[in-house]
Design brief:
This protein is an alpha+beta fold. It contains six helices and eight strands; from the N terminus they run E-H-E-E-H-E-H-E-H-E-E-H-E-H. The strands form two sheets. A four-stranded antiparallel β-sheet has the order 2-3-1-4, with helices on both faces. Helix 1 packs antiparallel against helix 2 and helix 4 runs antiparallel to helix 5. The two termini are 29 Å apart.
């Protein structure tokens, strides 16, 4: 599978310019390039590993480095990431739900990928900073012990980069809550 890259900027103007420069500098395909709250700009793209690395190096160079919030490189992203980003995942019925919330779009995508690759949980949704003052979150479901362990691991990963806000595990969510997720 191709690699996935994420770059997150605190300037719309330089974010758009960075996206253009990244596409011109490397053979990448944009998945998403847009404004999110609160006036941040995210670029989500894929390509060969070397191309994604080159594009991220462009995002980290001057003048973009002055407004860069975070980047992330996934060498082999889990296929469930894309359906979770677009809210097109079949939810089923869970024993437990886990929610991890962070300050960065890039870090939430990275931690979501790590969780689904290393835990027997299912990724339900990734919400990318739209209407949430720049915060992002990911929802997972599965057996209670697996969800608890994966949320603890995700928490520690986000804490390492000072991107953690909060997490929660809901055992046996009420059907009304489950339907609203």
């Amino acid at each position: 599978m191709k690699s996935l890259g994420v770059a997150e900027f605190r300037s719309v103007a330089l974010g758009i310019k960075a996206a253009d420069t990244m596409v011109k500098a490397a053979d990448i395909k944009l998945v998403m390039s847009q404004v999110v709250c609160p006036g941040k700009y995210i670029v989500l793209f894929y390509g060969k590993l070397s191309s994604v690395k080159a594009a991220l190096e462009t995002a980290e160079a001057s003048p973009f480095d002055t407004v860069l919030i975070d980047t992330y490189l996934l060498g082999n992203p889990d296929p469930s990431l894309f359906s979770a980003i677009y809210g097109m995942t079949e939810k089923g019925s869970p024993e437990a739900v886990g929610i991890i919330e962070g300050y960065s779009v890039a870090s939430i995508i990275g931690v979501a990928d790590e969780v689904v690759k290393t835990s027997p949980v299912k990724l339900i949704e990734i919400r990318l900073a739209r209407g949430m003052t720049g915060k992002s979150y990911a929802l997972f479901c599965g057996e209670l012990s697996a969800v608890e362990a994966s949320m603890e691991k995700a928490k520690h990963t986000l804490l390492e980069n000072a991107m953690y806000i909060q997490s929660a595990v809901i055992p046996s969510p009420d059907p009304q809550i489950w339907d609203m997720l």
